[in-house]
Amino acid sequence: MSFVVLKCGGAVANQSAGTILQLADAGHDVCVVHGAGPQISEEMERFGIPVEFVGGRRVTTTAGLAVVRSSFAAVNRALCLALGTRAVGLFGDEIGLHAVQIPSLGRVGDPLPSRPRAVVEALAAGRIPVVAPLGVGPLNVNADDAAAALAVGLEVDRLLFVTDVAGVFHDGAVLPSIAVGEANRLLGDGTFAGGIVPKLRAAVIAARNGVRTEIGETAVMA
Q1: What CATH number has the domain bearing residue 72?
Q2: Of 61, 36, 35, 38, the residue nearest 50 (C-alpha)
């Protein structure tokens, strides 16, 4: 059986439990990385903190980081509850997900390929690690980037992005596959915008490092 990192967005975290359990029940080792984008934005607006993105990544002040952490914690608890007793909730900054700070974005980091011992031990015990994407610092890390960094660091077979869209849309249709060179070209010329940008950027990194990568129905090919 294969070793899988599955990334689910905050908007579909609870609905992803069935897919995660299907993979685990089939004998696959599954590490989950979740986002909390809608929840974070809602809480920031509630506290009067500006919501700003650059290249698909959230600008994060110190005050914003506290909201990010609490939102991640809520999603992590809910997802672990949906998965049952096999799930173990983990925070990236507490288990050694390292990242390089991007000062222009505030308390935000680019994650480095990491192989946290807590993840390896959880999998060895038959558990499902559920990772909130914070980097050591702590730093806010885009969940797509964190999933790719863990997929590469853990040397997994497959990286799955579970989203609220069917896959990568181009010219009005979902692409069954896209080569990393074409993906980079389209990212570079501004064809894509919004949440697909960090997903595709992360998928390219994983695919180039030998990880079979899919965004919904779209395979990203090295």
Answers
A1: 3.40.1160.10
A2: 61
- Asked, for residue 166, whether it belongs to a domain, the answer is no
Distance of CA 196 to the CA centre of its chain: 12
Give the SS3 label for residue 48. coil
User: What's the structural domain count of the chain?
Assistant: 1
DSSP state of 100: E
What SS3 class is residue 62? helix
- Beta-bridge partner residues of 5: 31, 159
Instruction: Judge whether 35 lies within some domain.
Output: yes
**97 phi and psi, to 5 degrees?**
-85, 105
Q: Cβ distance 132 to 75 under 8 Å?
A: yes
Q: Supply the pLDDT for residue 187.
A: 87
Full residue range of the structural domain in which residue 80 is found: 3-160
**Using an 8 Å Cβ cutoff, are 86 and 128 in contact?**
yes
DSSP type of residue 106: B
Give the chain's residues under pLDDT 70. Answer: 1
Is 198 within the bounds of a domain? no
Angle at 72 between CA 71 and CA 73, to 5 degrees: 90
Q: Is residue 101 part of a domain?
A: yes
Buried/exposed code over 204-217 (b: 16+ C-beta within 10 A; e: otherwise): bbbbebebbbbbbe
pLDDT at 195: 80
